[in-house]
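Bug #77: duplicate submission created two jobs. Keeping one. Sequence:
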Amino acid sequence: MENHSDLLEKVGQLGFPLLKTESRDDPNKILADVVKSRDPRLWEGFPVMLAHAGENNNLDVHQMLSLMNNQNERETMRRLVFMSIALYKILGLIFFWTKKLIKNYPPLSVRNEYQAYLAKFEAGYDFNIDTFRLSSDKIKKIFQSYYEGNRKTTSDLIQTREDMGLDYALSQIFSAKQKEIVYKKLRREILTKTEKEYFSRLVKKKLLAISNAELQRLVRQIVG
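Kept job's structure:
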């Protein structure tokens, strides 16, 4: 692992500027080094860094795992990842890249780990990661300060929370797979051949039906 002072500079690249930085290192290596640093101050900021890397499509879990030296480091990374995902849920933030992230772990591990951290955030309990005790309240405040506090405008935060309503509404109409394709189209991501066919055959027809003005008028009459 690199010099610790160098790492303190580089984490600023992932939205956690402890020192001035102009670094443009690989985000996956920075996250791996944060895990290996055994620095609780950096671990408390891990959700901030993970969110920045995820939103910029820079995450590669397999690469991060390959940089771990032993099983203990891999377990620490897993705990920090699920702690982060639980925090996003508590704060009402939806990051769709987390779905790809958790696919790298067994379903039972995903459910148990996630639920455990979720419960601790809700109760305000501390986390025990490796030999360190981390404050759930402090982790939450750090995230709100460094991540939410650095968003361009307040409307960005409002939009994030409005997306929760959109996600719920889409869930009432589309299956999980169909909803994923809708979001990929919104993000202008490239669809696979199968997804393109699925979109044309099913998803597009539902979207066109929803956009029909007469249908919208009928819905308003029925549900008030």
